[in-house]
Design a protein that fits this description.
Elements (H helix, E strand, L loop, with lengths): L6 H14 L4 H25 L10 H12 L4 E6 L4 E8 L3 H16 L10 H25 L1 E5 L6 H8 L5 E6 L1 H22 L13 H27 L4 H23 L4 E6 L8 H7 L5 E3 L1 H5 L7 H19 L7 H22 L2 E9 L11 E7 L1 H23 L14
Antiparallel strand pairs: 1-4, 2-7, 3-4, 5-6, 5-8, 7-8
């Protein structure tokens, strides 16, 4: 006859479990505030290095808040006004991924910390802990959305354009403001994505019993993709630091380093992007990107077009091959011994395809600003600009599948020679 656990003992165990893994409102507040501080510091230092501290009208705090809002997927719209007979048009769609990455790592650490040293957690417990963080997160987004709004008057100079706009009372103004409802929606989706990825990539985070059967196939792949992306960031950091121009480099590092290195990651896979650069706007570094894209019409950005400007670009292919194969090996080494090479290939293909899809969706750039008078053209004089960069998505995904299958199979073969956790040596007879 089987022995049953008394109800009182079960209740005591649950109470003791709650004391061992505290995750109440205070812990949720600390996690959200830590993420805010991380993003605000990174955004503030990056904007300072870019010269935004000199913006008129005490705009710096509002600009920092706007960058943080954009970093978590929020909607910040540009507005223009140039008087009764002149008009401005402006638009901006870009994620400052350095700020996003800092906030994601901070809030993921705060989310996982109370759950460490646990093997299993029921769905209700995880949902309640996530809801506490989400409640403070929504309040934070509302506050940032109200702060992230400002307007600037643009000086057009003393030439003919300046005389016309002055006499007609059409001095151009441009500003930005947050769409708070839309920001709440996308900001909450951003948070949900970060928390889900944190649970998937962490070996120690507990899962509900019904999901335990998926951890052997999902968690090693998720962790390998996280290491892959962070490896690109580290390599990009080393390259950027050795280039000189400290202030300009600091601005790029603190605002958009992942934008550049994850773009390089997709290019190394053989993917292509389309876009162009026009006017005073430009892509920060390296200059070869600006050289390829500064054309009257959309052009293709790929290893071939970049190599026409600088042959060293082919090293991206070598770096990508090494890092992707290393990620596949890491995934296989963290997987159960019983998995076969073809299973590693399938897991790597799925993981790498999803990773490339995410990079393509978040690393695109679209920014434009223009001023016209009486509906006639562009007044020029540095008052207009355009930057566009969009992926050729299907090509990138097909290549990701191919790279994943090959690297996953090879990584599975290489991992056979490595002793893994839980492996038992066959006893000799």
């Amino acid at each position: 006859m089987s022995e049953q656990t008394p109800p009182r003992r079960t209740a005591a165990q649950r109470a003791e479990q709650g004391r061992r893994a505290p995750h109440g409102w205070t812990h949720a507040l600390v996690a959200v505030l830590a993420s805010l501080v991380a993003m605000a510091v990174v955004a503030g230092l990056g904007l300072w290095a870019a010269g935004a501290a000199d913006l008129p009208g005490g705009a710096f705090p509002s600009v920092v808040a706007a960058v943080v809002v954009m970093a978590v997927g929020g909607s910040v719209g540009l507005t223009g006004d140039a008087g009764m007979i002149a008009e401005t048009n402006a638009g901006l769609s870009v994620l400052p991924l350095s700020v996003s990455l800092a906030g994601a790592l901070a809030i993921a650490a705060g989310f996982l910390r109370p759950l460490r040293h646990r093997a299993v957690a029921d769905t209700k417990e995880l949902a309640g802990w996530s809801a506490r963080i989400a409640a403070f997160w929504l309040l934070l987004l509302v506050g940032l959305g109200l702060l992230a709004r400002h307007r600037f008057t643009i000086a057009v100079g003393d030439g003919p354009v300046g005389d016309i706009t002055s006499s007609l009372g059409s001095s151009p103004k441009v500003g930005f403001e947050t769409d708070v409802p839309l920001t709440l929606v996308f900001g909450l989706l951003w948070l949900a994505g970060v928390l889900v990825l944190a649970v998937l990539a962490s070996r120690r985070a507990p899962l509900p019993p019904r999901l335990l059967r998926f951890q052997e196939s999902v968690r090693p792949a998720a962790f390998a993709m996280l290491v892959l992306l962070l490896s690109y960031v580290v390599i990009g950091l080393v390259v950027a630091v050795t280039r000189g121009h400290a202030v300009e480099t600091l601005a790029v590092l603190l605002l958009g380093l992942p934008n550049l290195v994850w773009l390089a990651f997709t290019l190394g896979l053989g993917a292509s992007w389309e876009g162009r650069v026009d006017g005073p706007f430009g892509l920060p570094m390296p200059q070869v990107l600006d050289a390829v894209l500064r054309t009257p019409h959309n052009t293709t950005l790929s290893l071939n077009t970049l190599a026409a400007q600088d042959g060293r670009v082919w090293w991206l292919l070598v770096i990508t091959a090494a890092l992707v194969l290393g990620a596949a090996f890491l995934m296989a080494a963290r997987s159960p011994v019983r998995m076969r090479a073809w299973q590693h290939a399938v897991h790597m293909a799925v993981a790498l395809t999803l990773t490339v899809l995410a990079v393509c969706l978040i690393a695109g750039v679209s920014a434009h600003y223009g001023l016209s008078l009486l509906g006639i053209g562009d007044l020029g004089g540095g008052l207009s600009g355009l930057v566009e960069l969009r992926p050729q998505l299907w090509r990138a995904l097909v290549l990701a599948v191919a790279w994943g299958l090959v690297s996953g199979f090879l990584g599975g073969l290489f991992a056979r020679r490595v002793h893994r956790r839980g492996e038992v040596e066959a006893s000799s007879t």
